[in-house]
Design a protein that fits this description.
The complex is a heterodimer of chains A (114) and B (291).
Chain A (H helix, E strand, L loop, with lengths): L20 E10 L8 H21 L3 E7 L4 E7 L3 H9 L3 E2 L2 E11 L4
Antiparallel strand pairs in A: 1-3, 1-5, 2-3, 4-5
Chain B lengths: L6 E8 L6 H9 L2 E5 L9 E4 L4 E7 H7 L4 E2 L9 E7 L10 H13 L3 E8 L4 H9 L3 E4 L2 E13 L6 H12 L21 E13 L4 H17 L6 E6 L21 E7 L5 E7 L8
Antiparallel strand pairs in B: 1-7, 1-8, 2-3, 2-7, 3-4, 4-6, 5-6, 9-10, 11-12, 12-13
Helix pairs in contact in B: 1-4
The chains are: A alpha+beta (114), B alpha+beta (291).
GO cellular component, one term (chain B): ribonuclease MRP complex
GO biological process, one term (chain B): endonucleolytic cleavage in ITS1 to separate SSU-rRNA from 5.8S rRNA and LSU-rRNA from tricistronic rRNA transcript (SSU-rRNA, 5.8S rRNA, LSU-rRNA)
InterPro entries (chain B): RNase_P_Rpp40
C-alpha cells in the first residue's frame, strides 16, 4: 500500500487497471411490457443466464445488484473485474424470461461507480 | 452554484465557422470552449475547441481523407487504422485568417468535408460579444447548468483517512446513485457495504450540476467549499467529483481520449477543514496518465 504521508508531504500513487470491480447499468426489455419483476427475480434470471452459457462455474460468479428500479427495470450491477466478460456475454445472450422473449440493454459500463 | 456560467447549444453548426475571423479575438484570449454534442467518439466525427485555442477533430478514415489536413492516427485504433486525430493551434501565425494553414483547413471543412455538427459553446464573460454574430446565423438555445440537490439523513460514512481509494470512490458513487449501503454482506442481492470503520452522519447534502461547465466556475466552487469547511465543525468534509464528457476527443492535458468501454475521465477532490485533501484522478486504460 502507499507510504504514510509526511507532515508537509505530497504523496502520489498511480494505479493502472487497479479497480477491483466493474459496474454495469443495464435495462431489461420484455416482450410483454406490463410484466414486472423484483430484484430477487432479476438476480435469479441473470444467474440462470450465467449457468446456461458458462455452466456451474459461471453460475457461481459472484455479482451484486446494487440498485434496481422496478418501474423502468433498470439495474446497477457490480462484478469483479475478471468476471465482466462472463457476465456481459451472458446478459447479451439472455433471450427468455419465463416464457416470453427478453433482452438486456447494457446502458453503461465502467470500472468506477461514479 | 447559481452563478455557474450558461452555455449555448447550436444546432448543425458548420465547423468552418469556428475559423471565422470574428471569433479569432476571443479564441486568442482563451475565453471560448466548445464541444460537439451528440457525437460518439468511436463512431462519429467529434470536435473540441480548447480554451488555449486548439481545435481538435477526431475523424474516421474517409472523413480524414476528405478533409485533406495532416493529422495522426488515433491511439485507440484496433488492428486497422480507422480513426485519425487532427489537432490545430488556431493561435499560430499560419492559422491567422489568410494564412496557408487557415486556408487549407477552411477549404477542407467548408468544401471537401462540409462538416456540420450540433455544438456546445461556452465562454468567459468577456467573450460573449464576439459570439453574437455567429449565433445570429444559426439555430441556437441558451442553457443554464442543471442543478439538483438532495438532503441526506443518517448517512453511513467511512473513515476517509483509512479508506483505500477504490472503496472511497465506490462509496461516493453509491451515495450519488442512491445505492443503499444497508444490506449485510451475506444478503442474496448485494454484498456491498460501507467500508469499515464507519460512522453515521445525521445530515449531508448531495448536489449535482450538469452542463458544459467552465474550469474557473469549478475553481470558484472549490474556494467556496473550502471557506465553508473553515467555518463548520472539525469532522466535516466536502467531496467534489468533476466528470469530463465520455465522448470528448480530449482528456487530461490536450491528450487524446477514447471510450473503450466506459469513457471515464474524472477527478474527485475530497477536502478537509485542515486544508488537507485527497485528489483522485481517473481515466480509461489507454488514455494518457493524468498530470
Amino acid at each position: 500500500g502507499p507510504d504514510p504521508i509526511g507532515s508537509s508531504g505530497f504523496h502520489r500513487t498511480v494505479l493502472k487497471n487497479g479497480s477491483p470491480y466493474c459496474y454495469m447499468k443495464v435495462c431489461l426489455v420484455l416482450q410483454d411490457q406490463e410484466t414486472r419483476l423484483n430484484a430477487v427475480e432479476l438476480k435469479s434470471l441473470i444467474i440462470t443466464g450465467l449457468k446456461d452459457l458458462h455452466g456451474e462455474v459461471g453460475a457461481a460468479l459472484p455479482f451484486d445488484v446494487l440498485k434496481f428500479d422496478e418501474g423502468s427495470l433498470t439495474a446497477v450491477l457490480r462484478v469483479c473485474s475478471g468476471g465482466l466478460v462472463k457476465l456481459w456475454s451472458s446478459l447479451t445472450l439472455q433471450g427468455y424470461y419465463q416464457s416470453q422473449a427478453c433482452a438486456f440493454r447494457v446502458l453503461q459500463v465502467s470500472r468506477f461507480n461514479l | 452554484m447559481n452563478t455557474f456560467s450558461s452555455f449555448y447549444l447550436i444546432k448543425k453548426l458548420p465547423v468552418h465557422e469556428l475559423l471565422d475571423p470574428g471569433l479569432q479575438g476571443a479564441i486568442n484570449q482563451g475565453v471560448v470552449y466548445g464541444l460537439s454534442f451528440g457525437t460518439r467518439i468511436d463512431e462519429d466525427t467529434c470536435v473540441a475547441l480548447m480554451p488555449k485555442g486548439r481545435l481538435v477533430l477526431s475523424l474516421d478514415k474517409d472523413s480524414y481523407e476528405l478533409l485533406g489536413v495532416e493529422g495522426k492516427p488515433s491511439r485507440f485504433n484496433h488492428r486497422t487504422c480507422s480513426r485519425f486525430v487532427v489537432s490545430v493551434d488556431l493561435t499560430d501565425s499560419s492559422m491567422a485568417p489568410g494564412g496557408r494553414g487557415h486556408t487549407r483547413l477552411l477549404t477542407g471543412l467548408r468544401s471537401h468535408l462540409q462538416l456540420q455538427t450540433d455544438f456546445l459553446l461556452s465562454h468567459h464573460p468577456e467573450g460573449g460579444a464576439s459570439l453574437q454574430p455567429l449565433l445570429s446565423r444559426y439555430d441556437w438555445s441558451k442553457h443554464e447548468p442543471e442543478v439538483s440537490c438532495r438532503h441526506l439523513t443518517d448517512l453511513t460514512c467511512p473513515d476517509f483517512r483509512s479508506c483505500d481509494c477504490h472503496s472511497l470512490l465506490e462509496w461516493i458513487g453509491a451515495v450519488e446513485a442512491d445505492i443503499s449501503c444497508e444490506s449485510s454482506s451475506s444478503s442474496f442481492l448485494s454484498s456491498f457495504t460501507c467500508p469499515e470503520p464507519n460512522d453515521v452522519l445525521s445530515h449531508a447534502l448531495s448536489v449535482s450540476i450538469c452542463g458544459l461547465l467552465l474550469p474557473h466556475d469549478v475553481q470558484r466552487l472549490i474556494q467556496e467549499l473550502r471557506c465553508h469547511l473553515q467555518q463548520t465543525q472539525l469532522e466535516s468534509w466536502a467531496s467534489l467529483t468533476v466528470h469530463g464528457f465520455i465522448d470528448s476527443p480530449v482528456s487530461w492535458g490536450d491528450n487524446e481520449h477514447g471510450v473503450l468501454s466506459g469513457g471515464e475521465n474524472f477527478y474527485n477532490l475530497l477536502m478537509f477543514p485542515d486544508h488537507t485533501y485527497h485528489l483522485h484522478l481517473a481515466t480509461g486504460a489507454y488514455d494518457t496518465c493524468p498530470p
